[in-house]
Design brief:
Blueprint: H1 2-18, E1 45-46, E2 49-50, H2 51-59, H3 74-82, H4 84-102, E3 112-116, H5 126-129, H6 141-150, H7 157-169, E4 172-180, H8 184-194, E5 201-205, H9 214-227, E6 231-237, H10 240-243, E7 252-254
Parallel strand pairs: 3-4, 3-6, 4-5, 6-7
Antiparallel strand pairs: 1-2
Helix pairs in contact: 4-7
Bound molecules: magnesium ion (MG).
Magnesium ion binds near residues 120, 121, 237, 238 and 239.
InterPro entries: Acid_phosphat_B-like, Acid_phosphatase_pln, APS1/VSP, HAD-like_sf, HAD_sf
Protein name: Stem 28 kDa glycoprotein-like
Organism: Senna tora
Length: about 260
C-alpha cells in the first residue's frame, strides 16, 4: 500500500513538473476551470478562418486595429487564456529574454534598464476578462477601471520570474503604462502586492498624451529616458504598440495577448 502511494505521489509530481509549475507558483493565474467545447482545439470558425489562425494573425500583427475578439472565438480564446498554452507561450518569450539579458556586457552603473509594460505583461487582468467575455464584448472603461481600482490583479508568473532575474543581473526596471495618473497610487500598491517590490520609475500616461496613440506616448517617454542617460537594453509588452515606434530598446519581446488591441 505504501509503495502504491509513493508511486502515485511520484506520478503526480512528475505531471506537475512537466507542466512547468512549482508548489510556490500556482499554475493558474485565474482559478477557473478549463472550458470545454469546440473552441478548445481551435476548430471554431470565423467566416472561414480558424480561431487558432486568427490568434496567430493577431500575434504576428497581420490582423490589426480589431475592436473585439470575434464572437465565434470567445470560447477558443477563453480556453487559450486559462489553459497551459498561454503560460507556455509566455514562458517561451521570457526564457528568450533572459538568455539575451544574460549575454549582455552590462556596465553596472545603474543606467541599464528594462522597460516593462504593466497590463497583461507585469499584471494579469484575466480575472476581469474571464467575467467579461474574454475580449469578445466591447471594452467598458467604467467596469474595467473599477477592477483596476481594487488593486488585486495577480502577476503574470513568467514575467515576474524574468523581472527578478533581470534585477539580479543588475538591470533596473522601469514600468511604462498607459494607465492614467489617477491610477498611479493603486498601481504601485498592486505591483507591490503581486511581488514587484522595486523599480527605478513608474511612468503613467500624462494628460498631455490624451489624444496620442500608445505608440506615440510610449516612444516619447522612452526618448526621455534615453535623453536622461538610461540605456534601454530590453523592452517587453503584450501589445505591438509597446514595442513599435522610436527608442524601442536594444531588443523587444512580445508577450501573447488575444484579448484586446491597443494602437
Ligand atoms: Mg499591456
Amino acid at each position: 500500500m505504501k509503495s502504491l502511494l509513493l508511486t502515485l505521489l511520484l506520478v503526480a509530481s512528475a505531471v506537475a513538473t512537466s507542466h512547468g509549475t512549482s508548489r510556490s507558483e500556482p499554475y493558474l493565474i485565474h482559478p477557473l476551470r478549463l472550458k470545454s467545447g469546440s473552441g478548445s482545439n481551435g476548430a471554431s470558425l470565423i467566416k472561414g478562418i480558424n480561431c487558432a489562425s486568427w490568434r496567430l494573425g493577431v500575434e504576428a500583427h497581420n490582423i490589426i486595429d480589431w475592436k473585439t475578439v470575434p464572437q465565434e472565438c470567445e470560447e477558443y480564446v477563453g480556453n487559450y487564456m486559462l489553459g497551459l498554452q498561454y503560460r507556455q507561450d509566455s514562458q517561451a518569450v521570457t526564457r528568450e529574454a533572459y538568455l539575451y539579458a544574460k549575454s549582455l556586457n552590462l556596465s553596472r552603473d545603474g543606467k541599464d534598464i528594462w522597460v516593462f509594460d504593466i497590463d497583461e505583461t507585469s499584471l494579469s487582468n484575466l480575472p476581469y476578462y474571464a467575467k467579461h467575455g474574454f475580449g469578445a464584448v466591447p471594452y467598458n472603461a467604467t467596469s474595467f477601471n473599477e477592477w483596476v481600482e481594487v488593486g488585486v490583479a495577480p502577476a503574470l508568473p513568467e514575467s515576474k520570474k524574468l523581472y527578478k532575474k533581470l534585477l539580479s543581473l543588475g538591470i533596473n526596471v522601469v514600468f511604462l503604462t498607459g494607465r492614467p495618473l489617477s491610477q498611479k497610487h493603486i498601481t504601485a500598491s498592486n505591483l507591490n502586492l503581486a511581488g514587484y517590490h522595486t523599480w527605478t520609475k513608474l511612468i503613467v500616461k500624462d494628460v498631455s498624451f490624451t489624444d496620442k496613440t500608445a505608440v506615440e506616448y510610449k516612444s516619447a517617454e522612452r526618448r526621455k529616458l534615453e535623453k536622461s542617460g538610461y540605456r534601454i537594453v530590453g523592452n517587453i509588452g503584450d501589445q505591438w504598440s509597446d514595442i513599435l515606434g522610436t527608442n524601442t530598446g536594444h531588443r523587444t519581446f512580445k508577450l501573447p495577448d488575444p484579448l484586446y488591441y491597443i494602437s
